[in-house]
Structure formats: C-alpha cells, structure tokens
Design a protein that fits this description.
Elements: H1 19-31, E1 44-48, E2 51-54, E3 59-62, H2 65-68, H3 77-89, H4 101-113, E4 120-125, H5 128-143, E5 147-151, H6 160-165, H7 169-173, E6 183-186, H8 200-215, E7 220-225, H9 241-251, E8 255-259, E9 283-286, E10 297-302, H10 303-306, H11 322-337, H12 340-361, E11 365-371, E12 374-379, H13 389-401, E13 404-405, E14 407-409, E15 415-418, H14 426-441
Parallel strand pairs: 3-13, 5-6, 5-7, 7-8, 8-9
Antiparallel strand pairs: 1-2, 2-3, 4-10, 9-10, 11-12, 12-15, 14-15
Helix pairs in contact: 3-11, 4-11, 8-9, 12-14, 13-14
The protein binds ligand PLZ.
Length: 444
C-alpha cells in the first residue's frame, strides 16, 4: 500500500540539467518573475517516495522534501487516494460559508497530537506565514498587548508581519520595508557561536533580560520561537533554553508560540520538536508536512486563548480547504501507521554518523548538528568559525549535478541541511550521502 511507484534509485541519463530542463528554464526566464528563484533548474515530471524524476528522465534523490513537506514521501498512495476521493466529492465550499467534516477532523487531530493534554482549539489556514500571523493576532487579542518578540536567526515567513519577525536581510527583507511595528528581536541560543559553554538557562536569561529592559514583560503579547531554527541554520538551542523561555512566558502572562512549521510532524523523531524537553507551548503553528504536500497550515492552542477571538475574527476563503484537509488526515494516519518518528530517529542516526565522519576528515566542517531527520553541517574556513557560504554553494551545486537535491540555509548561508522524506530507504539514503561526501571531498 505504501510502496512507491518509481524505482527508488538514482539514475542519470543526461548531464544535469538535461536538454528539456534547459528548454523549460529558457521559457521560465521569459515568463516567471525573477524574484521567484529555484535552487537548481531540474524540472520535475513525477515523483514517488524519495525520488524525483525530471523531464529528461533522470531519477534524483530528494534530500530536501520540498523544504520539509513530503515527510510521508512523494505521492504517498494513501494521500493520493484521499485527495482524489475528496476532489471528486467537492473541492471547495469555503468553511465560513458551508462547513464540512474533514476540517473538524483535522482540528481534532491537531488538538490531540500537539504538545500538552489541556483543552485546545484549532483554526486552519493556507501557508505557514499565514498561521504565524494568525497566532500573533490571537495572542494580541487575548492579552490586549501589542509587542511581539522573535529571536535572532528566526524565520517565520514572507508576509509583512512575518518579515518583521524574520531575521535575515537578503534575500527576504531587502527593500521590502517598512515592516510591521512592535516587533522586537532578542538573541537566540546558538551553541556553535555563543560564548564557549553557555548553557541553555544562561542563553534564556540573556534573551529575557533584553525583553524586560527593552520591551517590558507587561507589554509583550507573545514570544514566537522555532524550537529548532530552520532557515536560520538548523540551530538546536542548548538544553534548557526552551523550558526557561516557556516558564518565563507563563509567569508573565506572555503567550509562548512555538513555530513548528519546519520541525513538526515526526521530523525530529517526536511528533513535535517541543516534545523533546516536554515544553508545552500556549499556541503552536504547523504547516508543511501536515498535509503531505497539499497547502495547509494551522494554529492550535489553549482553548481560553483561541476562544477569546470573536466569531468571524479568523478565517479566509481557502483556509482548511477540504482537499488539503483530506490529505492531512491521510498524511497523519500514515505517520502513525508507519511510525515515522522512529524512522526519523533511524535516519538521524545514519546521517549523523556519516556527517561526523566527514567532519573528522574535513576541517571546513565546523559543526554537525540537528535532531532526527533534520541534520546539517556548518561550513567554515578551516581552523576558524568564519562562515564559508561559497563552499556551501559549491557543494550543493555539485550534489545537484550528481542527482542529489540538497539545500543550504543559515543566517550566514553556510549550512547544508538534510531533510529527506521519512520513508527514504536506507540504501538510497546511503547513496545520497556518498554523493554529498564526494562533493565535500572535492573541496580539498
Ligand atoms: N515558519 C519555521 O520554516 C517556511 C521558506 C522557504 P510558508 N520555511 C521555508 C522560503 O524561502 O520562502 C517556514 C518555516 C517556519 C514559517 C514558515 C513559512 O511557511 O508556508 O512558506 O509561508
């Protein structure tokens, strides 16, 4: 039932990009705004499991999952079936006009699966950014306070409010301001770049001191935190950082919002990254892997906060679209049935072993980090902590040319991240890691 339709092997039949991809790239250049760019111009025709097939017939290994989306694999049969069935019934009514069961069922799943066994409610949206914006709306409504605090290295989206929360200038913020007011940024916990030996509690105290001094606890509606920072560089905070921030938020009536859009739904080896330290957020934003490739996002959280908003205060034409909801129900069922949290832990162990061996042989790898199937290397100039984004760019391009889709990230652009579908087979993963190792070795 879950066997992928495309052979799970890397197989190149042309140089990459091949002739048909190059033709499409030329059409794209003439038709698509250049502000929307792609990592590498391999145009995809089909995909299944952890393999992408391009328009020239090349089979590529996907180590990015479309940025942490297809955790259940490309074209997961249960998701395909659920989508086909729902689209044939009806594709849209607008939940705010004529409601339907799949929306309710997805909210039940969200309330049951997200951290904490307190009473919860959920609301559905289309994209991660929209979920984060709505979490901020709810927190402001419930607290009557204005200020929103985000961390350095944060990524929360590309809309005006979420760009105010996102830390990095290029490519995200450059010339797109002015940004939403009453957003403040404080230091994160970044063990590789923090003072040697700084504990999670010390990093939290550093952030809290700044919030209290610059923003004021009583004026702060919410603190928005990625439990492992994604676009910022797969930064795993020092143990104790998240629990200390959550405890401070609780003590001060500040809504603690965990943005689990990239980390959630089994990626880190638990249902959610917050589960690792038993952190129970007041509100959680999820998206990406939730619906197995269909666009769906959610805000889930404490019933008293969620119910504070007046009827009609939240919504949108497409939020909780029935086809996306059907996909989500199938995707989450697949995560549970195949125990994809355990799969993420197994993948993580295999990737980690390989990356640590690579780091031991290559002084350009300054740090290996991650949790579960969310692992990364940070590239530096040998013998220093100085970021080497050019090396990251070269390695990612070499992987692509060899048929492995890998992604970079990081505030300094010098992190290579691996986010394979959680259904990837061990020999395919090993082949992908061999290609990455070859690309790193070519750096000398
Ligand atoms: N919060 C933690 O990772 C999306 C962005 C890619 P949307 N990350 C991929 C890009 O360059 O645009 C993300 C995230 C976290 C929010 C978001 C935003 O989710 O669905 O892209 O809006």
């Amino acid at each position: 039932m879950d066997r992928p339709a495309v052979p799970q092997k890397r197989r190149l039949v042309t140089a990459l990009p091949g002739p048909r991809s190059l033709e499409l790239e030329a059409r794209r250049t003439a038709a698509v705004a250049r502000g929307v760019s792609s990592v590498f111009p391999l145009y995809i025709e089909a995909a299944s499991g952890a393999v992408l097939v391009d328009v020239d017939g090349n089979s590529l290994i996907d180590l990015g999952s479309g940025i942490a989306v297809v955790s259940v694999g490309h074209a997961a049969p249960t998701v395909v079936e659920a989508v086909a069935d729902q689209v044939a019934r009806f594709a849209h009514t607008c939940f705010m006009v004529s409601p339907y069961e799949p929306y309710v069922a997805v909210c039940e799943v969200l309330n049951a699966r997200t951290p904490g066994d307190h009473e919860k409610r959920s609301a559905l949206f289309n994209s991660g950014a929209e979920a984060v914006e709505n979490a901020v709306k709810i927190a402001r409504h419930a607290t009557g306070r204005d200020a929103v605090v985000a961390l350095d290295h944060a990524y929360h989206g590309r809309t005006n409010l979420t760009l105010a929360l996102t830390a990095k200038n290029l490519p995200y913020r450059h010339r797109f301001g002015p940004f939403a007011p009453e957003v403040y940024r404080v230091p994160a916990s970044y063990p590789f770049r923090d003072p040697e030996g700084m504990s999670g509690a010390e990093a939290a105290a550093r952030a809290i001191e700044q919030i209290e001094r610059r923003v004021g606890a009583d004026d702060t509606a919410c603190l928005v935190v990625e439990p492992i920072q994604g676009e910022g560089g797969f930064i795993v905070p020092a143990p104790g950082f998240l629990p200390a921030l959550a405890a401070w938020a609780r003590a001060n009536g500040v809504v603690f919002v965990a943005d689990e859009i990239q980390t959630g739904w089994c990626r880190t080896g638990d249902w959610f990254a917050c589960d690792d330290e038993g952190v129970v957020p007041d509100l959680v934003t999820t998206a990406k892997a939730l619906a197995g490739g269909m666009p769906l996002a959610a805000v889930t959280g404490r019933a008293d906060l969620m119910e504070h908003v007046h009827p009609g205060g939240l919504g949108g034409t497409y939020g909780g679209n029935p086809v996306a909801c059907a996909a989500a129900l199938a995707a989450v069922e697949t995560m549970e049935r195949l125990d994809l949290s355990a799969a993420a832990r197994r993948i993580g162990a295999a990737v980690r072993e390989r990356l640590e061996a690579l780091a031991a042989a290559h002084p350009g790898i300054g740090d290996v980090r991650g949790r579960g199937a969310m692992q990364a290397v940070e590239l530096v100039r040998p013998g220093t902590r100085e970021p080497d984004p050019e090396a990251a760019r070269r390695i990612v391009a070499a992987c692509h040319r060899a048929g492995v889709v890998a992604l970079s990230c990081g505030s300094f652009g010098n992190v290579i991240r691996l986010l394979p579908p959680l259904v990837i087979q061990p020999d395919l993963l090993a082949d992908g890691l061999d290609v990455l190792a070859g690309a790193v070795a070519a750096e000398g």
